[in-house]
Specification:
It is a single chain. With about 240 residues, the chain is of the alpha+beta class. It folds into 2 domains: about 70 residues, no CATH class; about 130 residues, Jelly Rolls (Sandwich), CATH 2.60.120.260. Helices cover about 15% and strands about 30% of the residues. The strands form 2 sheets. Strands 1, 3, 4, 5, 6 and 8 form a 6-stranded antiparallel beta sheet that branches. A two-stranded antiparallel sheet has the order 2-7. Bound molecules: calcium ion (2 copies). One calcium ion binds next to loops.
């Protein structure tokens, strides 16, 4: 048992060292999940506004501030101009979280020149639930410079209302730059050559010559692995 654990630790430490040595050449994959909201900082405008409820309120990052169009005059729209054609695939619409529930009928439109618009998502009724008051609309990735929300009805107030128009694009995917490149190693055990570490197959692995790591190296490699956020099977967290 002890020897098995030792072998595991040595292998893990060796692997960590190898990974640490190739880290400078590998683009670390970003955590998955939504990217950042593209809307803030860009020009917002609207077909009209009521009182102080201007278009700039839709991309100020504050759910409590909102745009409201001139009352009793549909359709109305509000938009954000991203400045350049951008890949987008989601918008998140918000109303102030304290407001009662309502439904707005709206479509998502796009433009690459700011003057000619096409429909990205056809008109539909969306429910703001009176709690989070947040509506997420996903759609096929499209390139657009302007994202416009065109409102034709609102059950809560006779105007277009929107406190945030958040715009998201596809999460940038990164590729493993190590794949297929020439690997080298200090040594390997049996058939466990370094090339196993960049073959894209998790089932094949590199293992260095056994019992050839110095204690100081083990410690250093634990530290490197910890710093790189690596989780290596059999590698104990470094508390040193
Ligand atoms: Ca706002
Ligand atoms: Ca492999």
């Amino acid at each position: 048992m002890r020897s098995k654990r030792l072998a595991l630790r040595l292998t893990a430490a060796g692997l960590a060292g190898l990974v640490a040595s190739v880290l400078p050449f590998v683009q670390i994959e970003a955590a998955s999940g939504a990217g950042s909201n593209l809307a803030p900082g860009h020009a917002a405008s609207a077909s009209s506004f009521n009182q102080t409820y201007v278009a700039g309120n839709i991309n100020d990052g504050n759910q409590s501030t909102y745009w409201e169009s001139a009352n009793n005059a549909f359709p109305q729209w509000a938009q954000v101009d991203l400045g350049t054609s951008t890949a987008v695939n989601q918008v998140v619409l918000k109303l102030p979280s304290g407001w009662g529930s309502r439904q707005e009928t709206l479509s998502v439109q796009g433009s690459t020149d700011g003057s000619t618009f096409s429909t990205i998502v056809a008109s539909a009724v969306y429910n703001f639930d009176g709690s989070a008051n947040t509506v997420t609309i996903n759609f096929t990735q499209t390139n657009t410079r302007v994202v416009r929300i065109n409102v034709t009805a609102n059950t809560g107030w006779p105007a277009g209302q929107l406190s945030e128009l958040e715009i998201y694009g596809p999460t940038t995917t990164s590729s493993n730059l190590a794949l297929g490149k020439t690997m080298s190693e200090s040594s390997h055990n049996q058939t466990y050559a370094a090339s196993n570490a960049n073959d894209g197959n998790q089932g094949t692995y590199w293992e260095s010559a056994n019992n050839a790591l110095r204690a100081a190296d083990v410690h250093r490699q634990h530290r490197l692995a910890g710093r790189a956020g690596l989780r290596v099977r059999g590698l104990r967290p470094d508390h040193g």
